[in-house]
């Protein structure tokens, strides 16, 4: 193998090593990004999990605390409706019935909000768990893929170096065989000349 071919092989190996090093660095960066994203999303994930866990427990106090923002909106809307009825409806039975209807609707809306919150909590918990597992698997898969590609590149350069050494040693072995053949031919010619 000539010196030019050897230099070309060394340049190619250097480029492969640099590429493999870049892949490893990217994989390490991805692993760091995955860790950062995990740390940033964990508080929100934990809060959501705690919220839905409280709802799924069936504890009436926890349930009412969880739905209180919605019930406050329902109460505010009902209060506005009652104020409108008191201000604009003529006195009498219809006015009383309308006020009672507002109270019944408010109770139905609060009850519906509470039951939906309780019944939907297990599904929300399952979705949170599935999302967390999926994101973890994706980040791990990307990091492992980059690391694997980088290591494979390093291994390939090692194989090429071994093959290059083998070719060099094979050439020396062939050269040695040629020298031995020439030597035996030369010695054989000398022996014939003496005889």
SSE order and pairing:
Blueprint: H1 3-57, H2 60-88, H3 93-194
Helix pairs in contact: 1-3, 2-3
Structural descriptors:
3 helices, mainly alpha, 195 residues, rod-shaped
What does this structure look like?
It is rod-shaped, with a radius of gyration of 41 Å. Helix 1 packs antiparallel against helix 3 and helix 2 crosses helix 3. It has one domain. The protein has 195 residues and is mostly helical. 95% of the residues lie in helices and 0% in strands. The protein is built from 3 helices and no strands.
End-to-end Cα distance, whole Å, is 42 Å
Domain count? 1
Mean pLDDT: 73
Strand content: under 5%
Summarize the structure.
The chain has one domain (19-194). The chain is built from three helices and no strands. The chain has helices at residues 3-57, 60-88, 93-194.
């Amino acid at each position: 193998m000539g010196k030019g071919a050897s230099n070309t092989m060394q340049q190619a190996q250097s480029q492969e090593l640099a590429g493999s090093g870049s892949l490893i660095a990217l994989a390490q960066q991805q692993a760091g990004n995955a860790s950062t994203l995990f740390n940033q999303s964990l508080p929100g994930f934990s809060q959501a999990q705690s919220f839905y866990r409280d709802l799924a427990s069936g504890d009436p106090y926890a349930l009412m605390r969880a739905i209180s923002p919605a019930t406050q909106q329902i109460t505010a809307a009902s209060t506005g409706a009652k104020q409108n009825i008191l201000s604009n409806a003529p006195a009498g039975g219809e006015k009383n019935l309308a006020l009672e209807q507002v109270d019944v609707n408010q109770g139905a809306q609060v009850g519906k909000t509470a039951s939906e919150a309780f019944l939907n909590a297990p599904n929300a918990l399952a979705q949170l768990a599935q999302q967390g597992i999926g994101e973890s698997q994706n980040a791990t898969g990307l990091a492992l893929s980059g690391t694997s590609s980088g290591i494979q590149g390093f291994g390939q350069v090692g194989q090429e170096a071994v093959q290059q050494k083998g070719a060099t040693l094979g050439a020396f072995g062939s050269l040695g065989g040629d020298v031995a053949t020439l030597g035996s031919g030369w010695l054989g010619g000398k022996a014939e000349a003496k005889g």
